[in-house]
Amino acid sequence: MSPRARTALHPHATPPELIRNFCIIAHIDHGKSTLADRMLQLTGVVDDRSMRAQYLDRMDIERERGITIKSQAVRMPWELDGTTYALNMIDTPGHVDFTYEVSRSLAACEGAVLLVDAAQGIEAQTLANLYLAMENDLTIIPVLNKIDLPAAQPEKYAAELAGLIGVDPQDCLKVSGKTGEGVEALLEQIVRQLPPPVGDPDAPARAMIFDSVYDTYRGVVTYVRVIDGNLNPRERIVMMSTKAQHELLEIGVISPEPVPSKGLGVGEVGYLITGVKDVRQSRVGDTVTNAGKPATKALGGYRDPKPMVFSGLYPIDGSDYPDLREALDKLKLNDAALVYEPETSAALGFGFRCGFLGLLHLEIVRERLEREFGLDLISTQPNVVYQVTMEDDTVVTVTNPSEFPHGKIAEVREPIVRATILAPSEFIGAIMELCQGKRGSLRGMDYLSEDRVEMRYTLPLAEIVFDFFDQLKSRTRGYASLDYEPDGEQVADLVKVDILLQGEQVDAFSAIVHKDKAYGYGVMMAGKLKELIPRQQFEVPIQAAVGARIIARENIRAIRKDVLAKCYGGDITRKRKLLEKQKEGKKRMKMVGRVEVPQEAFIAALSSDDNGAKAKK
Ligand SMILES: Nc1nc2c(ncn2[C@@H]2O[C@H](COP(=O)(O)OP(=O)(O)OP(=O)(O)O)[C@@H](O)[C@H]2O)c(=O)[nH]1
Predict the structure, then answer these.
(1) Which letter does DSSP use for residue 253 in this model?
(2) pTM (whole model) above 0.80
(3) What's the 22 CA to ligand 1 centre distance in angstroms?
(4) Nearest CA to ligand 1 atom 27
């Protein structure tokens, strides 16, 4: 049956009692996307011929990295006892940076399949996602996955999982997303155990926007979940926060490609197209209603995500600045957690200071900007947000080291997180050592089973966002898992380290670091720049300074590069040509005071691979 024929089963909106909205939540790599693939196949939404692994991971980056970044909603028919139900599945990302996507998806569902790898057991994000689902009052179906693996211990982990959510171990379903074993039984339980959506079909329409994307041909495509009433093609709709009115050109469901329908009713999940090109018209979290019979009260909306890590993004070619602005506007539509505002840097020119949920988020945004919009970008050293209180009680919020105030500072506060680490108990010592080195303090520790512990720490965000996860993995041979959430701020001994070239400060290289690490940063940066900046016609000192105090120094020795040296005697045109060529080369240089710094030196000095700012996967 073609997708179109299937929706013809319900030419108008599907009655809510035949709808089940669910998501799959799990720790990263526990097999959500693979299970989703099997469901698409079993329900006939994707035929065997068109099937490819990770079907719903539509972005190239997702497929290459094998991770889910965006949530995806898809509708699948499933027959039970002679009745055909519409199952709306929302596939969600597992990485801690994308928890925001997960929480939005959860708000669109009545139930969650909690998936646990039967060879690994419960991990840190299993817990984090479970708590999110519980906060949203979702019905939870516990499922052990990968039972085909020889190392699987479904009985052991069923007991762990059952203990966690307070059910009988017998009630944990056992499946293999790879072989398909147990997946039909799971689909049946989704219909039986999850409650159908409730809403008032006769009330004015209210639909929640949970995602939107920009399509070059069709304009903005908005994904909604209908709470009350109906939305129908050709009627006029209103976005409640902006009061903007549009005509609904097309409305439909994703199954697995967009399929137009004759309307969406209570509990349904689908998409809207109004032909609008202005990306700001469709705000995630906004409520859509009918213009003819508008609702008076908007739905609750989502909590705005708070960016945790900031970095400057600059086009390598300064003339790409307007393109970068447009690209950010479009990307923002598909990534509500991204924030940005224009900034200028003496060294890098015009760019944007952008806020991200974490380093992986930064990496993904940068990669999407480069790939989807063809931009070449440079990103500056990432940093967290600091609150600086001056002695006269004024408070300065610092998202960029160059904003760090001069003058009399009373205290500097940095963000901290509440981290949960799950690991086999033999690694307790190694984990404690790592956390202490990162200025952490232990809040508590519990045994989940006799050989697995949960350790809870308070840690500075700045210590955790960079290489913490890599170090944790290497010290625990890959067995530990980590999750964290913001937990306020603390006073810390922080200083700003500046890098000076011949006495001139280079803003792009300044960093705010803990006092004990200032020296390390200064030596590292000065050493790196010495390698990267070519010799000039005079000696160039590179210094690292905290305030007026120099903490590290390197020297680039002088050289006199006389391009005319070889042109003895010689004719004047040849000389001119050589001088022209030298001028060309200079265009790609940035001047810092009298020092010429090649663009490549900035890129190399700030490249994340070298400064230890590698994102965790
Ligand atoms: N043996 C076996 N391997 C599986 C099974 N399900 C998934 N895998 C493998 O586990 C790995 C992770 O699977 P994914 O489906 O990509 O995991 P995910 O949870 O969607 O990952 P994220 O989207 O990044 O959160 C892949 O290598 C899969 O091939 C299973 O039932 N059995």
Answers:
(1) E
(2) no
(3) 19
(4) 29
